[in-house]
């Protein structure tokens, strides 16, 4: 991206913030954004395969740039890899918050995600092993092709970084995993955080090999679905489907772990 025309959200929050000098050698914000714009592009590539038609990629880039500006406001004295690490977190948080505010997954699709999770959990408990897509499709009384469509759709609900998940307790006493940016998670203590990290690692270890590999590549290696498809020699759509399936299993595994921990 070059010149002055950065894509920014409609509220123009970034206007006026870009040309002030900020840390690291007295470079202007404009110069530092140009220096670190790759952080934004890497984050956007990770969600590109998940975006529904009504969400414009340029707008997501704009929110990513606002995250980069946040990083400069808070950590402008840092430079190099140290700054890029904190900038990546700020950019990712801005993008996730924006997508949640857009309500990017339709209510019908959210209901399907719950239905899919229940189907996978039920079939796999009955069989005592990971279910095939044909077996889950039979449970849902749909074709395998339709199930794969739904898995790809479900993938959009699992874009939050796994290391940003925390326990949230509902009024009824139930607990579920949610992104750190949710207001209810602000008082999370170090022991709770450590507990979640341990249970999350355990939940990932229980995934089938293919699911575990995609989770590792997407969340920890930070590859996009396109890059994962190249590594695994599968289609980009198939990478998203496996990601969605892995997310369903992880959510079920974490729910079981939470119940066991509370018992």
Number of contiguous helices: 10
| SSE-based structural type | mainly alpha
Q: Output the CATH class name of the largest domain.
A: Mainly Alpha
Radius of gyration: 20 Å
Helix content: 55-70%
- Beta percentage is under 5%
Order of helices and strands: HHHHHHEEHHHH
For the record, the CATH architecture of the largest domain stands as: Orthogonal Bundle
Whole-number total of structural domains: 2
User: In angstroms, what separates the terminal alpha carbons?
Assistant: 53 Å
Identify the quaternary structure here.
single chain
Mean pLDDT: 77
- CATH homology superfamily of the largest domain: Winged helix-like DNA-binding domain superfamily/Winged helix DNA-binding domain
Q: Please name the CATH topology of the largest domain.
A: Arc Repressor Mutant, subunit A
The coarse silhouette is globular
Reported for the largest beta sheet, the result is: 2 strands, antiparallel
The stretches of 5 or more residues where confidence is low (pLDDT under 50) are 1-8, 10-19, 163-170, 174-186
Work out the number of β strands: 2
Spatial strand arrangement across the major sheet: 1-2
């Amino acid at each position: 991206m070059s010149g002055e025309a950065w894509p920014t959200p409609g509220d123009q929050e970034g206007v006026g913030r870009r040309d002030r000098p900020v840390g690291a050698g007295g470079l202007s914000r404009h110069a530092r954004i140009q220096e670190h714009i790759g952080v934004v592009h890497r984050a956007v590539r990770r969600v590109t395969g998940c975006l529904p038609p009504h969400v414009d990629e340029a707008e997501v880039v704009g929110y990513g740039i606002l995250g980069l500006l946040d990083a400069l406001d808070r950590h402008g004295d840092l430079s190099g890899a140290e700054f890029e690490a904190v900038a990546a977190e700020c950019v990712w948080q801005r993008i996730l918050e924006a997508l949640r505010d857009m309500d990017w997954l339709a209510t019908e699709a959210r209901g399907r995600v719950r239905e899919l999770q229940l189907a996978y959990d039920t079939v796999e408990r009955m069989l005592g092993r990971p279910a095939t897509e044909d077996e889950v499709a039979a449970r849902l009384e749909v074709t395998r092709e339709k199930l794969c469509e739904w898995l790809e759709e479900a993938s959009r609900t699992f874009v939050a970084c796994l290391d940003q998940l925390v326990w949230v307790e509902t009024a009824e006493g139930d607990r579920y995993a949610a992104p750190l940016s949710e207001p209810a998670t602000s008082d999370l203590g170090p022991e709770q955080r450590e507990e979640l990290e341990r249970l999350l690692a355990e939940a990932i270890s229980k995934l089938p090999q293919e699911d575990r590999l995609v989770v590792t590549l997407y969340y920890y290696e930070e590859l996009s679905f396109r890059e994962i498809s190249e590594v695994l020699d599968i289609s980009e759509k198939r990478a998203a489907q496996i990601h969605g399936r892995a997310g369903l299993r992880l959510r079920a595994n974490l729910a079981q772990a939470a119940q066991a921990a509370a018992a």
